[in-house]
Amino acid sequence: MRTTGTAQPLPTVLLTGFDPFGGERLNPSWLAVKALQGRRMGGHQVVAAQLPTVFGASLVELERLLRTHKPALVICVGQAGGRAAISLERIAINVNDARIADNAAAQPVDTPVVAGGPAAYFTTLPIKAMLLALQGEGIPAEVSQTAGTFVCNHVFYGLMHHLATCRGFKRVRGGFVHVPWLPEQGQPSMRIEELERGLRLLVATALATPQDIAQGAGAIS
Ligand code: PCA
Q: Which of 33, 66, 88, 142 could form a disulfide with 127 if both were Cys (CB 3.0 to 4.6 A apart)?
């Protein structure tokens, strides 16, 4: 019996990280994502890609990647200096408001990511299940209520808008995760090995959890 010749390619998981920005020499988001390139996980193949830390151009590149790879799951990752835990972002907002210039020297203030778009989108990642998975492995993790208003939120909002409005993407799940600095960048920090382990766990948990679990993680005020 012939069993070769018509093998279906595996569905893909798209992971993105950013290039260094704000005068830094490295960005842990890209280093962690890059380590998973080509890996098979839960019947899927990981595609890792770097986005420029640039308003506009980052989304052009992300949309190209979405069309090329037609992923089943998308997790965009960025650096959040000053945070001590892996931050699972809950909400993307329709505003660009940059405190520093991006890598193309642009610094938009109070402009929409998508003119006429809704105020915000929720992640469609199972962030509570992901939170429990990380904490269960002893990896510092939290749910975050804001991805800021710089290029990370811009990409997060653009991703969710694309998934919500573009033909063929309605069932694709996606969201955004911020990671701390590496020890050589400052404190608080997380080692690259722990970041990579955390990211692997996040992908595996998202693939295994079609419906998020109910687990309180909210602040009281
Ligand atoms: N972090 C920035 C943009 C690129 C990155 O890694 C942010 O939090 O917006």
A: 88
